[in-house]
Each structure stands twice: as C-alpha cells, then as structure tokens.
Specification:
Length: 249
C-alpha cells in the first residue's frame, strides 16, 4: 500500500490508517500495540488523519474511540488535493506579473547562479518555459543534453515549449545526434536545426534567451550556471548568429 504515501502521508500515517481499517472502531491502547508505536505518537497521527478526513474521533463516556472513515475518503482526499493544487496554480498565475516585475527590477544588476545535479539543472529549463521569451537559442551536443536532464523530462519540456509557442534555433553536432521518439519534424516542433562545422565540439551546451545565458556541463560534471546580463547576452547572441551562419541545415 505504498501508493497511499503519494497522497502526502508518511509511512507511520499509512501504518496507523491501514491498521485502523482492519480493526474498525477501537481505543488507543490496542491500536498502539498493533502498530508498535508510542501512544503519544499514535494520538498525534490520528489527529492528523482526522484533519484530512480519513479518521473519526468520538468521545464515549470518559474514553475516546477511533474509527476509520469508509475507503472512499481516500478518493475524496485526492479530489481535495487536486482542487487545492488548481487553486494554488490560479493564485500563482495571478501574482506572476508582479513577481516578474520585481524580478526584472532586481535583474538590472548582472547576476550569476549555480545549479548542481539533475534536479537543479532541470530548474533552468523550467525557468525558460515561464520566462516569456518567444525564441530560445541552443548550442551543444544533443546526446549530452539528453544524458544531463533525462529523455522523459526533455520530451515533457518540448511539449510545454510547443504549447507556449516558444520557437527554438539550435546548432548541434551531427555526430552527437540521437534518435528522437517524438516530434520528428521541425514544423511540428516550431524549431530550426543546423549542424556545426566538422571540427566544432561542445560537450557542454549553451542556452540563450532574453538577457540570460545558461551553460550546462555534461552528466559527468553535472552542474550548470546561469548568467543574467544584458551585455553578456548580446555578446553570446552575436556568437550564436556567427556560428549559425557557418552551420548547415
């Protein structure tokens, strides 16, 4: 029943809830004995389970009794969490313009940020999607990009990018291409691809958008850094355009 943990419950929560389902209405002593946890811990867990609608706590005479709500309560919990997530997303979208204004103000001064490991590097790609940019420029060896951020995540990123209408131009190294499982045609992916001269190598990849330049290394080194600087971005965009001119479709 590890799946229940995906609803935000930890292992002890699940253990107590499943035990209560088996026992039905019970008191704290037999329940604590069954799950082999301290009584105070079980009481705390039961209060938490009650707050999310999985358990009922009743006072009978001088004793508290605990009973599980029907299993359908798990579905109700999932629906509430979905509704709450939708509401949080709406709130985030409503405050995004103001957050962007504050962010753009803070970005007047150049800055550099470092990212280590796959999860943090993926944040760089997440930022591209919400940047408001209409075109992203890439330079790099495609197989290394797949290794760094993962094929499944990259496919999801491409879908999100297309949904946002963000175009891309990329200069790749032909020898480092990989077979793509989705979005084969440039028209479908609103992208343009050219291949660099034969003597060009780029194990790390460079991404340029707005006033931002992201440099991401290979899976072996597994780090990236993002520079936000108008002048540096202009320099790197010029470098990209020159490389684009000498690369072939």
């Amino acid at each position: 029943m590890e799946e229940i943990e995906k609803l935000g419950l930890d292992k002890k929560d699940v253990k107590v809830y499943l035990a209560l389902l088996e026992m039905g209405e019970t008191h704290i002593v037999p329940l604590a004995q069954k799950v082999e946890l301290p009584r105070n811990t079980v009481v705390y867990i039961l209060e938490n389970l009650k707050s999310i609608g999985l358990v009922e706590i009743l006072q009978r005479c001088s004793r508290r009794v605990y009973l599980p709500n029907p299993p359908e309560a798990v579905l109700n919990l999932a629906k509430r969490q979905k509704d709450e997530a939708t509401e949080r997303e709406k709130t985030a979208k409503s405050i995004l313009p103001e957050l962007k204004r504050l962010y753009s103000t803070s970005m007047v001064e150049p800055s550099m940020r470092f990212f280590k490991g796959q999860d943090e590097i993926r944040q760089i790609y997440d930022e591209m999607i919400v940047s408001g940019e209409t075109e992203i420029l890439y330079v790099g060896e495609y197989d290394k990009i797949v290794e760094v951020i993962g094929k499944r995540y990259l496919e999801k990123f491409i879908k999100n990018r297309i949904a946002k209408g963000i175009k891309t131009r990329s200069v790749r190294v032909r020898a480092a291409e990989v077979a793509e499982s989705i979005f084969q045609s440039p028209e479908e992916t609103i992208r343009q691809i050219r291949y660099s001269p034969a003597d060009f190598v780029s194990p790390g990849h460079v991404t340029i958008y707005q006033n931002t330049v992201a440099v991401i290394t290979t899976a072996k080194e597994n780090f990236g850094f993002v520079v936000t600087s108008k002048e540096y971005a202009i320099t790197m965009k010029s470098w990209f355009e020159q490389l684009w001119k000498v690369s072939k479709e």
